[in-house]
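Write out this protein's structure.
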Amino acid sequence: MKIAFYGSSLLSSYWNGAATYYRGLLKALSRRGYDIVFYEPDAFDRQKHRDIEVPDWCDVVVYEATPDALMQVASRAVQAEIVVKASGVGFEDEALLRAVLDHARSDALTVFWDVDAPATLSELRNDPGHPLHKELKRIDLVLTYGGGDPVVRDYRGFGAGECVPIYNALDPETHHPVAGSPRFACDLAFLGNRLPDREARVEAFFLEPALALASHRFLLGGSGWGDKQLPANVSWLGHVGTRDHNAFNVTPKAVLNISRDSMASNGFSPATRVFEAAGAGACLITDAWAGIEMFLSPSEEILVARDGADVADIMRALTPGRAKAIGAAARRRVVAEHTYALRAELVDAIFKSHFERQSVEAAQ
């Protein structure tokens, strides 16, 4: 069965936090027999910062960020039984959604895959004229990066026929324990791009603890922080490619997860970083959000901080032995319960259920 998937980028994680999610899920779906073409625009210099080349489990079409090129790739939706438009593609998202729905076959399964559902739903609540209000009537299925029951309830309230969260997970072939690297040696590390809806939380959960722990070494990775005033004990690395994520997660005593505002408020939205770090056996500290226990057990498999003071207290008390034990427990949990192979099994069942219903309806 052919899938036409229109997303931000499969080949580059540069200003593209969804890359790991796309790679893990689509590789696992490919192994279940799906023939996938991923369409991504040449935007935001992502093609100059590729983390991977075109994989053997998925074709990739990179198109120019122009209206004509957009329409050309949208017209190829007709070749697929399943047509997926992800949120946050980054070039003319609304036009792309309309175009792929216009070109999809009448018997195709059309999917809107939302990788930032809390933010999208906030836009829908605040803008009655948002184009997605209309397009949801043409979309068969909404899949989301996470969000739990709150997201499902809200999407159905806006007219979605079916909405299912497909959570981030681990690809054990990609994220796993490796030898540490002196480049990433520190007490606490955080990896994340500088974004308006996360910066204040980075200040509270990372920079303020750094000020309180002058004798500890802190490491900041991610794009956009070059002109940010940082405490003397915080080193900035710039963009850290996915090939270095395992060493980045393994080397520090602990790594920090900081949710974006919308995902922290909604809950039930673990970032890709949570599973990447756990898969590498890192001791992970996360900001508090509803639903953490669905994925990892607080105090045993992950440490939870309500604010920056909690982060500082955790780091003062954290011994290397306890950090290693927490990291090992987290890795066992995610390998057993939170892999992309398991997520793809759920997606496969959802897709097949749709076509089975379609066949029954056609026979009646």
